[in-house]
């Protein structure tokens, strides 16, 4: 999991550097094309028919559209915002997921989870507060991206039985299609070095996806998910090393609150899952005893 997050963080650094020259659509197109070349053997091994005809195709299409839009918004945001600021706002996704789960899925949210979500929203407010410019369109787009990321997490819950290759392939198809659609907004012919970096961007992102999905297969999500907040640490380090950026004290306080809220939500969900599991075990034991 940690290695996967490091790969994603390196992908973010390369993306921020490249988006200063190339459009987000061009990045999405070339990144996705490179990723598909690497992914092709896995698709063939699994079977093209099985990959292209998954269960719940409508939800897959929705997830594909959300994922492609979320990735594109990220590149738009890092072109105008420091890396740490962007990642801080993006990591509010688990907080948004609580609200979306209650509104869209009708999930019951207990007071403790609402309190943790409120702490996260306070962190978002602090992260946006340092100056009036913080409420600029890129910052608001970053918030929109974090909401889309939350929707992606919820869609992932509903597709747990789908093979990893299928999930990654559909998301890559979506990015390829959206990148192609955005090409009329601008195309810059890459230099040989940049062309290699654009390809590497897709390969690194693909490897990051595979590492994270494998980690979630090998261990419970509640065990490995807290490591996602090392994104902010890497963003701080790489933003300072490569771009000379350092967040304001209020941004750091907001990041701390968002991380605390996310960890609290994970602990509460883990506790709720444990209680539900023990209750189900008692019900099975009682049923077996009566039989």
From TrEMBL:
Pfam families documented for this protein: EamA
Keywords assigned: Membrane, Transmembrane, Transmembrane helix
Taxonomic superkingdom: Bacteria
Source organism: Bosea spartocytisi
Any one GO cellular component localisation term in the record: membrane
PANTHER family documented for this protein: ACYL-MALONYL CONDENSING ENZYME-RELATED, BLR4310 PROTEIN
Domain (EamA): residue spans on this chain: 2-128, 139-261
Coiled coil ranges: none
Protein name (database record): DMT family transporter
Membrane-spanning segments: 25-44, 64-81, 87-105, 112-129, 135-155, 167-189, 195-212, 224-243, 249-268
């Amino acid at each position: 999991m940690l290695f996967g997050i490091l790969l994603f963080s390196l992908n973010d650094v390369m993306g921020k550097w490249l988006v200063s020259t190339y459009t987000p659509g061009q990045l999405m197109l070339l990144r996705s094309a490179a990723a598909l070349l690497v992914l092709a053997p896995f698709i063939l091994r699994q079977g093209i028919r099985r990959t292209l005809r998954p269960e719940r195709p409508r939800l897959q299409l929705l997830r594909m559209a959300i994922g492609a839009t979320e990735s594109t918004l990220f590149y738009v945001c890092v072109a105008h915002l420091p890396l740490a600021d962007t990642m801080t706002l993006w990591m509010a996704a688990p907080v948004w997921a609580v609200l979306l789960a209650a509104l869209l899925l009708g999930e019951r949210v207990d007071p403790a989870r609402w309190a943790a979500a409120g702490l996260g929203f306070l962190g978002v407010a602090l992260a946006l507060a340092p100056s009036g410019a913080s409420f600029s369109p890129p910052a608001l787009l970053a918030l929109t991206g974090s909401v889309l990321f939350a929707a992606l997490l919820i869609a992932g819950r509903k597709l747990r039985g789908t093979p990893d290759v299928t999930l990654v392939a559909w998301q890559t198809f979506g990015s390829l299609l959206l990148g192609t659609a955005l090409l009329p907004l601008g195309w810059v012919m890459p230099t040989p070095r940049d062309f290699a970096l654009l390809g590497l961007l897709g390969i690194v992102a693909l490897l990051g996806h595979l590492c994270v999905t494998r980690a979630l297969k090998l261990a419970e999500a509640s065990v490995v998910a807290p490591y996602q907040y090392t994104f902010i640490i890497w963003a701080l380090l790489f933003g300072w090393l490569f771009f000379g950026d350092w967040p304001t004290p209020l941004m750091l306080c907001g990041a701390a609150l968002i991380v605390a809220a996310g960890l609290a939500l994970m602990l509460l969900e883990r506790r709720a899952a444990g209680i539900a599991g023990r209750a189900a075990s008692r019900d099975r034991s009682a049923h077996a005893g009566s039989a």
